[in-house]
């Protein structure tokens, strides 16, 4: 069980992580969407839109953390539930986009062109997003925040999707197969749907919602 001073310190650390996330994702989203549009790449566009969703998620987390600092832990429970559900809905939305875009690409038999800027931004995203996600998960467990855990999962999904995009770009460069981009972009859908369901159906860390893998910092009754 954390003390009030330790909890406040953890929340301030979470603030720093979210602002760092916002700074990087602004660059990541712009480069990925621009290069994806230029190359006609479903996976790069999905990666860029994922970055946009993560920007929204980071903004939600900053709001949720601000509510706790201003009004106390009890007041933040409503903000916690709302932020977690919105985060889950954003994950569902991204999964739907990736499936629709990949399906359209396969239907029209339209592949992508190789994109060097896209490869560069996805390679840079891999270690950075994994590092941010690990730190967020640690703090989410400390303060019992499902919303922060959902945001960390979105950071992990960004890293996973980056790996998928890198693999697709390199395979496209080496083989020239038109369908590689669409098929590789589907590789992240299962992950997005699974985590979206968990975020949407889960509760904040309270007596009803506390359980295994919830991020609670105490034992269940």
Helix content: over 70%
Number of helices: 7
General shape: elongated
Cα-based radius of gyration, to the nearest Å: 18 Å
CATH class: Mainly Alpha
SS class: mainly alpha
CATH topology: Alpha-lytic protease prodomain-like
Which architecture does the CATH hierarchy give at level 2? Up-down Bundle
Round the mean pLDDT to the nearest integer and report it.
Answer: 77
Q: Find the CATH superfamily.
A: Cation efflux protein transmembrane domain
Can you describe what's shown?
The protein has 221 residues and is an all-alpha fold. It has a single domain (4-201), classed as Up-down Bundle (Alpha-lytic protease prodomain-like). Helix content is 80%, strand content 0%. It has helices at residues 4-39, 42-71, 76-108, 116-143, 146-175, 180-185, 189-201. The chain starts with a helix and ends in a 20-residue tail after the last helix. Mean pLDDT is 77; it is low at 203-221.
Properties at a glance:
disordered C terminus, Alpha-lytic protease prodomain-like, mainly alpha
Short description:
This protein has 221 residues and is an all-alpha fold. It has helices spanning 4-39, 42-71, 76-108, 116-143, 146-175, 180-185, 189-201. It contains seven helices and no strands.
């Amino acid at each position: 069980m954390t003390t009030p001073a330790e909890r406040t310190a953890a929340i301030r650390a979470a603030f720093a992580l979210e602002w760092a996330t916002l700074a990087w994702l602004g660059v990541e989203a712009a480069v990925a969407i621009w290069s994806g549009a230029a190359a006609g790449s479903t996976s790069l566009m999905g990666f860029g839109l994922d970055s946009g969703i993560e920007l929204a998620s980071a903004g939600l987390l900053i709001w949720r953390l601000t509510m706790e600092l201003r009004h106390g832990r009890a007041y933040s429970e409503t903000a916690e539930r709302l932020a977690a559900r919105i985060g889950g809905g954003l994950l569902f939305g991204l999964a739907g986009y990736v499936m629709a875009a990949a399906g359209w690409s396969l239907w029209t038999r339209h592949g992508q062109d190789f994109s060097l800027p896209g490869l560069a931004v996805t390679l840079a995203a891999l270690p950075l997003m994994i590092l941010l996600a690990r730190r967020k998960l640690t703090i989410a467990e400390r303060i019992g925040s499902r919303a922060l855990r959902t945001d960390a999962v979105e950071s992990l999904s960004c890293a996973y999707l980056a790996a998928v995009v890198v693999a697709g770009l390199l395979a496209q460069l080496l083989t020239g197969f038109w369908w590689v981009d669409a098929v590789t972009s589907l590789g992240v859908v299962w992950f997005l749907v699974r985590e979206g369901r968990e975020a949407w159906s889960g509760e904040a860390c309270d007596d009803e919602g506390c359980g295994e893998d919830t991020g609670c910092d105490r034992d269940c009754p």
